[in-house]
Amino acid sequence: MAIPYKELKKENKKKQVAMMFNNIALHYDFLNHFLSAGIDRIWRKRAIRLLKDRAHNTILDIASGTGDFAIEALKINPKKVTGVDISTEMLEVGKKKIKKKNLSGKIELMEGDAENLQFDNESFDAITVGFGVRNFENLEKGLKEMNRVLKPNGTAIILEFSKTRRFPVKQLFNLYFNYILPSIGRFFSKDNSAYSYLPESVNEFPDGNDFIKILENCEYKNCYQISLAFGIASIYYCEK
Q1: Yes or no: domain 13-239 corresponds to CATH 3.40.50.150
Q2: Rounded Cα–Cα distance for residues 58 and 180 (Å)
Q3: Rounded-to-10 torsion of CA 88, 71, 198, 148
Q4: Residues in Cβ contact with 71 at an 8 Å cutoff, skipping those fewer than 6 apart
């Protein structure tokens, strides 16, 4: 199992992930957009557009971080978006951003664990997760919790990195992802582990059809994958 801080073996993955995001919270938005050349914004927009043909009054954004996916979700006019994350520092950055944009009446960010959600059964019309499921300590437990709080026929949209297999994109991207990106991330964030953990966690993640099978085993239906940027990332669509 990929963990951010290999020297802290006594701390489980969940605690280490929270610690990592707390450490890089102040630099996260800048590095996220800079290192992806802004393409992460395009991916979020495309993911949210999958929800536009149905009414989704209540949306839960898991691993919400600084709130970018929650903010993008407002494009489909829900009554409320609730964002949860285990990193308190990321949430603080997100709350300031939301307040600055005068969106506090539409978005609520709170501390929460994806594997032990604090909400009642069938509470949300839709759930979004942006680059968060590979950080779950127990992937299936987190996906089942999402299913539990999703209303019948509700929609889950998961945006996550994938392992591209196309030549020469694979070779070029792996060079950037495994060597260049971690070096830039370490320089700006001053965290020696966070941006090395990123490619390690992506390499371990069961993407593509393997992930769809896991979703189906967790009682999701109508699951499919949309490949992005030659397979660098994917949108997974599924329903309860």
Answers
A1: yes
A2: 39
A3: 80
A4: 97, 98, 101, 103, 107
pLDDT of residue 38: 86
Q: Block means of pLDDT (10 residues each) for the chain, length 240 residues? A: 83 93 92 84 96 93 97 96 98 97 96 97 98 96 98 97 87 88 86 88 95 98 96 96
Tell me the one-letter amino acid at 207. D
Q: Helix (H, G, I), strand (E, B), or coil: what is residue 156?
A: strand
Residue whose token pair is 């539409």:
106
pLDDT at 138: 97
Instruction: Tell me the chain's radius of gyration from C-alpha atoms.
Output: 17
Q: Are strands 150-161 and 124-130 parallel, antiparallel or unpaired?
A: parallel
8 A C-beta contact, residue 159 and residue 47: yes
Q: What per-residue string of b and e applies to 87-109 under the rule 16 or more CB within 10 Å gives b?
A: bebbbebbbebbeeeebeebbbb
Check if the beta carbon of residue 63 is closer than 8 Å to that of residue 130.
yes
At residue 167, φ and ψ (nearest 5 deg) are -85, 135
Long-range contacts of 202-205 (CB under 8 A, 24+ apart): 202/134, 202/161, 202/162, 202/163, 202/177, 203/2, 203/163, 204/1, 204/2, 204/134, 205/133, 205/134, 205/160, 205/161, 205/162, 205/163
Q: What's the confidence (pLDDT) of residue 236?
A: 98
HSE of 177 in the Cβ direction (CA atoms, 13 Å)? 19
